[in-house]
Amino acid sequence: MSTTYYNSKKVSVLGDKKVGKTFLINTLCENYKNNDIFIIKDMVIEDKKYRFEIWENKYKVQRNSNIVIYVFNISDLKSFVQMKDLLNINYCKEARIGIVGFKWNEREEVNIDEVKKYAEDENAKFFFFSPKDDDCLKKVLFLLNEE
């Protein structure tokens, strides 16, 4: 018996090294390793079945992505600047855009209000997490999928 999915979505997760891309994916897909090409995750959101094909890449959006998530480190201003460059180079107007900031230590080099304004200007949603947060990717997919 095959399962019917209401919707299949391709998700690209982008960002520089050591910003939290693999960590983000692992909050939803515990068997994921960053040398995997992609991983499939089936989820139910508001009683609808979805199949997410999740791709991790440093610089390039996968073709036909429905959701693009840009990850950066709140504790590193250079990381935020690189994320903005990535978004400008890889802007995908057909996709829903998420910007995820991780706080890896007590230092905050990036102003949260500046990130919120930037996300709003880019028609993106901003998410802020620490490594202590569970289900980060599930929360991001839920909110980006609801529109």
Question: What labels would you give this structure?
Answer:
6 strands, 147 residues, 4 helices, 27% helix, globular, 6-stranded mixed beta sheet, alpha/beta, Rossmann fold
Quick recap of the structure?
It is built from four helices and six strands. The protein has 147 residues and is of the alpha/beta class. It has a single domain, classed as Rossmann fold, CATH 3.40.50.
Describe the model.
This protein is α/β, with parallel strands linked by helices and 147 residues long. 27% of the residues lie in helices and 31% in strands. It has a single domain (7-145), classed as 3-Layer(aba) Sandwich (Rossmann fold). Strands 2-3-1-4-5-6 form a 6-stranded mixed β-sheet, sandwiched between helices. Strand 5, helix 3 and strand 6 (125-129) form a beta-alpha-beta unit. The mean pLDDT is 86.
List the helices and strands and how they pair.
Blueprint: E1 7-14, H1 21-26, E2 38-45, E3 48-57, E4 67-73, H2 77-89, E5 96-102, H3 112-121, E6 125-129, H4 136-145
Parallel strand pairs: 1-3, 1-4, 4-5, 5-6
Antiparallel strand pairs: 2-3
What is the number of beta strands?
A: 6
In CATH, the architecture is 3-Layer(aba) Sandwich
- Number of domain modules: 1
Strand content: 25-35%
Mean pLDDT score: 86
Poorly predicted regions: none
Q: Percent of residues in helical segments? A: 25-40%
CATH domain fold name = Rossmann fold
* Morphology call: globular
What distance separates the N and C termini?
31 Å
Q: In the CATH hierarchy, what is the superfamily? A: P-loop containing nucleotide triphosphate hydrolases
The first-level CATH class is given as Alpha Beta
Helix/strand-derived category reads alpha/beta
